Amino acid sequence: xxxxxxxxxxxxxxxxRYLRSxxxxxxxxxxxxxxxxxIMLGVATLxxxxxxxNGFRIELVQRILxxxxxxxxxxxxxxxxxxxxxxxxxxxxxxxxxxxPIVEGQVMASANGVNSGVLVRAMPQxxxxxxxxxxxxxxxxxxxxxxxxxxxxxxxxxxxxGLRVGSTLTLISPQGRQTAFGTAPRVKGYPVAxxxxxxxxxxxxxxxxxxxxxxxxxxxxxxxxTGIELMVDNPDQVExxxxxxxxxxxxxxxxxxxxxxxxxxxxxxxxxxxxxxxILSLIILVAALNIIAGLIxxxxxxxxxxxxxxTMGATRGAVMRVFFIAGAxxxxxxxxxxxxxxxxxxxxxxEIRQAISRLLGVTxxxxxxxxxxxxxxxxxxxxxxxxxxxxxxxxxxxxxYPSWRAARLDPVEALRYE
Length: 418
Known about the structure:
By secondary structure, this protein is α+β, with helices and mostly antiparallel strands. The protein contains 17 helices and 12 strands. A 6-stranded mixed beta barrel has the order 2-3-10-5-9-6. A two-stranded antiparallel sheet has the order 7-8. It is elongated. Keywords: Cell membrane, Lipoprotein, Membrane, Transmembrane, Transmembrane helix, Transport.
C-alpha cells in the first residue's frame, strides 16, 4: 500500500468497494444513492431553468426587435413634417441599415359587436414586407392589400373579433373633428387584407398594420409621421450610433432605443434568472451535505479497516485519497448524469411539455400569459459550464472534511477494543 502511487488503481479499488452496498453497511450506500440523485436532479434542473430563461430572453428580443425596430426618432410634443428628408439623412449614417417613417396610434377596433383596444402601426408597404416576423408569418390573405386601403390583423385579434380575410374592421378614434357639441369620434371601416401570427400573444392580439397613406388620412396627419424607426447593424450596441443620430436630428427631437423602451422588462427577467439560479443551487448544496454525512458514517464504520491499512504501511495521504475518491465519484457521476438529462430535456422540451399536458389534461405553458406560443430553451455554453463547475466544486469540497477525519484516525485507538 505504501508503494502505490497517488490516485492509483489500489486506492480506486478500495474507494469503489466502500461504496458498494452490503448487508451490514447498506444504509451508507442508500445515503450515497440519495446524494447522487440530489446532485443529478440539481444539475439537470439548473441547466433546464437557465436554458429556458435564456430562450425566453432571446425569443422576446427577436420578436420585439422584429416589430418595433432598434430605435425610434420622435419630435417632442408633435409630429415630424419633413420626414422624407430626415429619413434619408438618417439612413445615410454609417451603421444605420434603414430609417422608416411610421404613423402610430391607439384606437378602438370593432367588429361583429365586439370591441377591443388596438395599436395601429403604419409604414410604407416595402418596409413592412422587409419585416420577416410579419411578412413571413401571414396565415391568410396578402400584405399587398394594405396599399389599397386594407389592414393586417393578428391571429388572436381576428379570433376575438370574429374576423377573416375580406371582413370589415371598424376603427374608432376619440380624436375626431370638432363639432358644436364637442369632439366627434373618428369612425372608419377597413377591409381585412391579411391575418398574421408572430407567435407572441401580446402582438397577435393587439397590432393592426396599415399602409402609410391611409393611416395619415385616418389620423389627420397629412404629410406628417409620428416617428422614424431606425434599424442598425448591431442591435446589442445600439448606443454607439446615437451620437451621430442626435447630430442629424438636432435638438427638437429625441431618440428612444429598444433597450430603454424595454429596460424594466428585461431587468425583471435578469433578476428572476439570478434568483432562480440561487434557489435551485440549494438542491446541489443539500446533496453535497448528504455526501458529507454519508462519508462521515462511512469513516466511522470503516475505522477497523482504516487502522489495518495504516498498520500495513498506508500513509495518511493514501487514506485521505481513498475517501476523497469515494465522495468525489458520487459528485462526478451525478453531475455528468444531470448534464445528459438536462441537455436531452432542453432539446425536446416542447415535445415533453405537450406530452405532459395531454397526460394531465392541463395547460403547462399558457401563451396568453407567457407571450410565446412555444416554450423556448437555449443552451448557452457558459451557463452549462458554470453549473458543472459549481456542482463539482461543492462535491469536492464536501469530501475534504470526512477524508481528513479518516486520515487523522489513530490506528491504536481503533484497534484497542478489537
